[in-house]
Predict the structure of CBS domain-containing protein.
Amino acid sequence: MRTIELNKRQEQIVQIVKEQGPITGEQIAEQLNLTRATLRPDLAILTMAGFLDARPRVGYFYTGKSSNQLLSDHINKLLVKDHQSIPVVVNENVSVYDAITAMFLEDVGTLFVVNDKSILTGVLSRKDLLRASIGKQDLNQLPVHIIMTRMPNITWCEKEDTLRDVAYRLIERQIDALPVVKKTENGFEVIGRITKTNITKAFVTLSRDDDR
Ligand code: ADP
């Protein structure tokens, strides 16, 4: 994926293909007074980046896509399944005290709550646990299902969803994480976790891809 400026020769190639495509690599090379071999890396870059399309025995076409379009094409191909983390789940009957311990031990900001059949029933955030902690209740006696955000009010996603969709839901609902679920006849099984951190990491990967 390429969004950085094209070099002068690459600009020239794009211009030639725009005006004369379909055109062979040989013909482009001739016009630029270069050998086909010299041109090969540039043609490969322009094709990989999506500016040009190559068809065997026909030649190069201009795709007509701007850098911005190519970048959004690329972003829209980022899928949950390639960026998700392992979910941390607790049973709905564990105490708030144990949930706090799990959050520290597992070093996550969101816990997913499941019933005895491992089906998603709720979500616990840091603030949910803080809120419960400043009350008068005994945290060892208070089960998490009393304080959690519960189904059907959970925002979730599936592994084939795009990161863009997930980012949209995180912003819209003002939350930090979504469970990645698999639908079963009993309800949702939790198979992953996707957070703002995963999306930030994907963002960094995108900018690294540019340097290739
Ligand atoms: P924090 O409360 O630590 O800032 P969040 O912003 O993620 O963390 O959570 C805000 C509220 O939204 C909490 O009450 C939490 O239970 C709830 N929440 C968090 N994630 C989800 C989710 N995926 N679906 C529904 N509610 C959620």
Summary: The chain has a mean pLDDT of 92. The longest strand covers residues 187-195.
